[in-house]
Amino acid sequence: PGKPEDQANGRGDIDLVGYIRVLHENGYTGPLDLEIIGAKEYAVEQCCVIAAESRGHMQACLQACGAR
Q1: Which of 9, 30, 42, 67 has the fewest Cβ atoms within 10 angstroms?
Q2: What's the confidence (pLDDT) of residue 45?
């Protein structure tokens, strides 16, 4: 999966808006989560930056497809 900071939402090639739109249109109401692999040795501050960036992108995806 690459370096942990490269695993943040929005840095890859997956169409997250399209994926979330399909879930939303089909009534999915469960959780969405992101697992970052390889951040065990990272400082808490580094993990917080990755989490904040990912949360912001996920919020934008949810809003773009009308799920929020």
Answers
A1: 30
A2: 96
Which amino acid, residue 46?
Answer: Q
Residue of 41, 39, 42, 30 lying closest to 67 (CA atoms): 30
| 68's tokens | 């929020």
Residue-level pLDDT at 15: 92
pLDDT lower than 70: segments of the chain:
none
**Rounded-to-integer distance, Cα 20 and Cα 50, Å:** 20
Q: How far apart are CA 51 and CA 53, in angstroms?
A: 6
| Distance of alpha carbon 44 from alpha carbon 62, whole angstroms | 26
Find all residues with CB under 8 Å of 16, minimum gap 6, and list them.
9, 10, 57, 58, 61
> Which residue, among 36, 35, 25, 27, has the nearest Cα to 3 in the 3D structure?
36
